[in-house]
Amino acid sequence: MEKVQFQAESKRLLEMMIHSIYTHREIFLRELISNASDAIDKMYYKALTSNDLVFNKEDYFIKVSMDADARTLTIVDTGIGMNSEELAANLGVIAKSGSLAFKKNNESKDGHDIIGQFGVGFYSAFMVADSVTVISKSHGSDQAYRWESTGADGYTIEPCEKDTFGTEIILTIKESTEEENYEDYLKQYKLQNIIKKYSDFIRYPIKMDVTEQKPNEGAETEFEDIIVEKTINSMVPIWRKNKSELTKEDYNQFYQEKHFGWDEPLTHMHIHADGSVVYDAILYIPEKTPYDFYSKEYEKGLELYSSGVMIMEKCADLIPDFFGFVKGIVDSENLSLNISREMLQHDRQLKVIAKNIKTKIKNQLSTLLKNERDKYEKFYESFGRQLKFGVYNEFGTEKEVLQDLLLFYSSKDKKQITLDEYISRMPEEQKFIYYASGDSIARIEKMPQTERVTDAGYEMLFLTDDIDEFALKALRNYKEKDFKSVSSGDLGLPEIEDTTDEKEKDEQTELFSFLKTNLSGKVKDVRASKRLKSHPVCLTSEGELSIEMEKVLRAMPNAEKDMYEASKILEINVNHPVYETLKSSYASDKDKCSLYTSLLYHQALLIEGLPIADPIEFSNDICKIMK
Q1: Bigger pLDDT: 53 or 418?
Q2: What is the DSSP pairing of strand 278-286 with strand 265-274?
Q3: Domain boundaries, the chain
């Protein structure tokens, strides 16, 4: 019997594939089962064109069995089988696809579709096997053939005996090494798990002989082991059923079965798309944040299937990061199962599906916000931070998608509102959307900087999340209304009539110049405040970096002390008694005025929640005042 050599390029491809193409070795079983399903599909197509052949679905199945002692794993199908020429053509040239050629010549009918490309996937068997034997008998033929190979050195084909048509693939599993435990592929539970994981929705039964225990009445042992042939896969995926057939409990059960979360989903989407790319999907928005959601360990992504066969457990390219909380599956017959099935990020069809899914998720959240506000607020409590991150990330490229989904606490309503709700009730003369940032609602309500905006009767958004202000900076405006911090240099409010005479103005200028010199390097300027009413002092900022943003950035790991610093302004209320004390001390005792200046500055720092550089010096200054 002569050994046939693979073509040179096929030999190189085989060696490359065995050692590097597939990340997870266990997918070899998915590939072989997909090929077996293809072979049965071909029988189905043949029955459609033949009056002499009746396709009785009960006669068609795939069976997986193993022999741990002989170290063999066997996959049997009752499909169309192959003759010697087909064995040589389909298995003799790597990446030669019998299924692909068949698919080109036969249109899909009744939902049947050829899954894989027989050839490339088949050779994944050599990732776990020292040798592979294929025994096949083509439908309508009296002769069976045996194809054997130990890998890149070539293959042999010879006649053999086989009672029924179909194909039997026998893998001799490799010995385990320190790097890889090949024994797993000879264990019943492991094979069952792989089948459920990757091939649960293959349309034909995948059978295995499973060891079970039954009560052993009257015997010494309480139980005895029995062998039962069981169907491992569920065959009919829930996403291919009509929505009218399914209940909320069905969707929730699927959510639990797939271990998408331990909670109940807040809502779900069942999608069937028939456009340029055909796909089915079931997507879930969880109720609660996974424990690791905001950690590096969390992996976003949807399960990706091609005609019921899992391609990828977590396809990150299907959803943007800001919707990374969404769980679910996508199944498309347009996605090919070939050598690049684990490298789909450049697939045009996948990009079309991803774009569609992003729109569907956005619309679902918008509907939830409009019709079920309580549910949406519960969702937002868990995942609102992720939406705000999406607005800020990538230089605000997705802000148009997300801006109407954002919620912020209202100073008037004392609850979360949308930007659109804020805009809808703005007085006609109001120019800006005002906001105030702080550690908590209670702290923001006491901020001196809010007094002027409150007196004007304008609503404010209270920002308590460290990413809030960054998100608003990325938005810049909403419906042509700019955002304005109550701590910004210019509030854009009508000027209050200044009754200060020229002499008083000159005195102010001289005093504030003295204070500024005392605070050199700490503040950019010292000014008379146009926003303070009852409080003596506050800090404001100029430029893009606010004081709250400075605090957030400085708290980041490895942030250098002076890397992020807001341009601070010390504002003093000239109508407060403290100002009179400053004037008096400046005129009579400049050292005491410097002491008062230091105390006011540190008081302003404490109001802002900023650290005091030298607490001991601050304590000593207080003691000096008390003498």
Answers
A1: 418
A2: antiparallel
A3: 8-231, 238-376, 381-485, 502-542+563-626
Q: In whole angstroms, what is the distance from residue 305 CA to residue 311 CA?
A: 5
- Cβ atoms < 10 Å from Cβ of 480: 6
Average pLDDT over residues 576-593: 94
The H or E element containing residue 301 is none
Tell me the CATH architecture of domain 238-376.
2-Layer Sandwich (3.30)
Give the helix/strand (H/E) hosting 484. Answer: strand 481-485
Model pLDDT for residues 69-106, shown as the tens digit of each residue: 999 999 999 999 999 999 988 887 654 444 445 455 55
CATH of segment(s) 8-231: 3.30.565.10
Architecture of the domain made up of 502-542+563-626: Up-down Bundle (1.20)
Average pLDDT over residues 305-311: 86
Residue of 411, 508, 420 lying closest to 453 (CA atoms): 411
Q: Tell me what the mean pLDDT of segment 105-127 comes to.
A: 58
Which residue in the block uniquely carries the two structure tokens 């709700």? 421
3-state secondary structure 131-190: EEEEEEECCCCCCEEEEEECCCCCEEEEEECCCCCEEEEEEEECCCCCCCCHHHHHCHHH
CA distance 514 to 508: 10
555 burial level (CB within 10 Å; 0-12, 13-18, 19+): exposed
Residues with Cβ within 8 Å of residue 450, at least 6 apart in sequence: 411, 436, 444, 460, 486
The sheet with strand 129-137 has its strands ordered as 155-160, 144-149, 129-137, 166-173, 72-77, 62-67, 206-215, 223-231
- Exposed/middle/buried for 621, CB within 10 Å: 0-12, 13-18, 19+? middle
> Tokens for 116?
């894989």
Which residue shows structure tokens 């197509």?
Answer: 45
